[in-house]
Amino acid sequence: MYEDFYGFSERPFQLTPDPSFYFESVTHKKALSYLGYGLAQGEGFIVITGEVGAGKSTLVGHLRNRLDWNSVTVGEVVTSALGSEEMITMAAHSFGLEVDHSDKAGALSAIELFLQDEARAGRKVLLVVDEAQNLTIGALEELRMLSNFHLGAKPLLQMLLLGQPEFRQLLAEWDQLEQLRQRVIASHHLEAMQPGEIEPYVMHRLEHVGYKVRPRFEGEVWKRIHRESRGIPRLVNRIMSRVLMKSAMQQRETIDLPLVDTVIDEINGKVPEEAPMGDYTPQREKPSSRKAEELGTDSGLLQTTEQPHGGEALPQSENSALMDAQIEAIEQAFAERDQAIALVRKEITSLSQRASQSAEDGDTLHRLAAIEARLDEQERSLRHVLTMMIDYFENSATRNAA
């Protein structure tokens, strides 16, 4: 891999958010200022929007790392088209509260008692709601109602809503959200990075992994990367990862404009990828037995990308398109899995309630608790596998060329 060739401690251009790589562009600096102001108020809503890959999750991760955990308690909800009652349940779960999803009044009471206890202990409470554009109007209204909790004159809960640009439009245009709009005390839309920020952004990430002088970059590449990525950090990461891979395979010490143009054309499927001509040709290694098991090689999932037609490889332009399609399919499958798990959790809660009301059946309750624990473990494991699989497919075409 290119990190070995250039002596990096790890790969600097992962697609998954990592707060340790946080780069303070002009727009991220403004967003952090708004966040700081909003948190100082201790009430209402803070709204941060941006395109997919603009760095919202990285920004919030950076914020979390800066918070004093002795004075702030943070809950987080990643939404999947939640309705009003599901929103209350998920908010409670984000703070570690066990509530019955069918007992809204009980869930609200549990949340209020929790918030009061935190306030008496001198801690603020922040609820972060990601992918807010997926929320129904009813769910947003429930969040507004949660913001009504007070202890005396002191508000007990503050909320940070993260969403894509359509959420910003939703807030501005829907009459039903007028009361929520009035409680937004800080709002910022993450813009794309400017052309002059691409080089500092790339170098920042490289220096984080031990970059010294290899590889060198010719000045013309930065404008080209900005034009292709539109200044969106995740797209910059994707381009740079492919550029460094091809550069390492060709044993380059300098990355120039023709190389970047070639990589971009390959990404867009305009030209077929060609095997590198240099002496550096990394051996294709099979995944370790553990990784192979996690990625499901026994089911043939990974072989699909290498030998889709009985051992005959696809042309590289088609292979690039296939990678994108596979990643999209994987993400869709995991979204459907999230919904399925949510339904199972509801059923478990219902069964647990009936078991408690009908009889003191300790064995049944124990079995339900064990199922719940296995669901939690499965969810963590599948999230990990998703990250590995996306990473695998993003780089698969380049490995095939090797």
UniProtKB/TrEMBL annotation:
Pfam families with a match to the protein in the record: AAA_22
Gene3D superfamilies associated with the record: P-loop containing nucleotide triphosphate hydrolases
Transmembrane residue ranges: none
Bias kind Basic and acidic residues: ranges: 282-294
GO molecular function: ATP hydrolysis activity
Region (Disordered): 270-315
Domain ORC1/DEAH AAA+ ATPase residue range list: 42-171
Source taxon at top rank: Bacteria
InterPro entries, sorted: AAA_22, ExeA_AAA_ATPase_DNA-bind, P-loop_NTPase
Protein name: AAA family ATPase
Lineage of source species: Bacteria, Pseudomonadati, Pseudomonadota, Alphaproteobacteria, Sphingomonadales
